[in-house]
Amino acid sequence: MLAGCGSAPVVQGRATSMLFLPDRVGGLPVTDGHSGKRSDAPAPARRAENTDGGQIDDLALLAIDDIEDFWSQNYAGGSLPGTFTPVSRLVSFNSDASPGIELCGENTVGLTNAFYCFKSDVMAWDRGVAIPVAAQYFGQMGVVGVMAHEYGHAVQQQARLVDDTTPVLVAEQQADCLAGVYLRWVAAGHSPRFELSTGDGLNHVLAGLIYIRDPLMTRVDAVLTGGEHGSALDRVSAFQIGFSGNVDQCAAMDSAEITKRRGDLPKFLDLFGDTQGGNSTITAALLESVMQSLRRIYAPANPPTLSTEPSACPDAGPSPPASYCPATNTISVDLAGLKALGEARTENDEQELLQGDNSAISVLTSRYALAVQHEKGLTLDTAVAAMRTGCLTGVGQAGMAEPGQSITLSAGDTDEAISGLLTNGLAASDVNGRVLPAGFTRILAYRSGLQGDAAQCYQRFP
Fold it and tell me: Considering only CA atoms, which of 380, 387, 276, 368 is closest in space to residue 322?
């Protein structure tokens, strides 16, 4: 045995976690295809009070069947003590119907939400507005994601992970994480009721998390409105931790863990700040300020130059509205295109996700990150290079949150960046503008840079 071990061949290179491979999502292969109810899915077994017997309630109940199936198999000891017991009461309501019904101390008229009541062990959902909207914009698995989050609150209750003193943000982050644990089980093919592709299907679930983020608010607003539920970055981060990890990591989430994960990134508007979050129009002068900040943050020996004139590049393809040419060490910008990408927009405009100035600035940052890699002699036209670029973009953006920069991040800017990573992916693309196939992976690369440093980016994505 000793001789066998001594003669074993040595594999050269550095180990890379399955979590950080460009063709993987939480260790699973990147897949496309059907996401939603299986063609051979059984009829819902559970019943809801006040149901209209329609398709929305059938979908919600089928999701609850599946979630309870998962937790009955996976709720055992460790961080989830005791025995799993299904939620005792399920209620459907229509928020558009008057006079409504009383649930958990509230009348359901205008209550466009799904929720779980701790004290009465009731799970309820709005079949009139909230769930149909989730189905319309985020697909059937968007609805399943909503139900998984609310059921996460029931799991918290049973495991005694939360009590009346637990901050709302902690409870919400844990529930997002627990939903991620369940949905990975679905994506791995274990659900008898649903399928979830790790490409487009999971993108829609993540889009739903971005949609339900907290609005921009001051710290005082957060207190007066009953506490934070989490920014888009918070919610996606917690979900990804659950999807890529396990229940123990969800149970371990507390205020200290969330504070550490957030780092020094801006979370609130100034008390007398701009209610739009400081969104700036993209101009040539603003881009020069960004270039100055990035030069200080990345400290390259040979900084790239910025051009707003079109030009051909002999060794790389275009990635409009911002492209990097290694041969000339130049970042070429289509100013009109970048300005359009940076215009403030919410989901109410043209049924698209959040967008703002950092949707554009994060893309420019990624092209600067390519220049930094080029200076190190690294390959720029591979999927690993796209991951590394996303990571270094996160590093650059975290640097913009530090005081003294010529341009700084404001509250909501990272949400704009991850929304852009999900919709166009350019901030995690290679030198030719080829994006990583899964939005989950693009956001993960960016997050790893926000919460790390350049050395970690080079180590994880060699």
Answer: 368
Least Cα distance to 177 among 241, 112, 263 occurs for: 241
376 Cα distance to chain centroid: 30
In 10 A of CB 452, how many CB atoms? 17
- The C-alpha angle with vertex 170 and arms to 168 and 173, in degrees rounded to 5, equals 105
- State the average pLDDT for the chain: 91
As beta bridge partners, residue 167 has: none
Q: Where are the domains of the chain?
A: 18-262, 284-460
Residue 375 has pLDDT above 70, yes or no: yes
How far apart, in whole angstroms, are the C-alpha atoms of residue 188 and residue 123? Answer: 26
**Residues contacting residue 134 through CB under 8 Å, at least 6 positions apart:** 142, 143, 146, 208
Measured between its terminal Cα atoms, the distance across the chain in Å is 34
Question: CA distances (Å), 15 to each of 11, 20, 25, 450, in order?
Answer: 10, 11, 17, 22
Find the range with the poorest average confidence among 123-137, 161-175, 254-268.
254-268
Among 152, 155, 160, 210, which residue's Cα sits nearest to residue 183?
Answer: 152
pTM above 0.90, yes or no: yes
Is pLDDT larger for residue 428 or for residue 227? 428
Confidence of residue 223 (pLDDT cuts 50, 70, 90): low
pLDDT, tens digit, for every residue of 4-21?
333 334 434 444 567 789
pLDDT tens digits, one per residue of 72-110: 999 977 889 988 999 999 999 999 999 999 999 999 999
Q: Is the pLDDT of residue 345 over 90?
A: no
Residue 311: count of CB within 10 angstroms of its CB: 11
Mean pLDDT of 206-226: 78
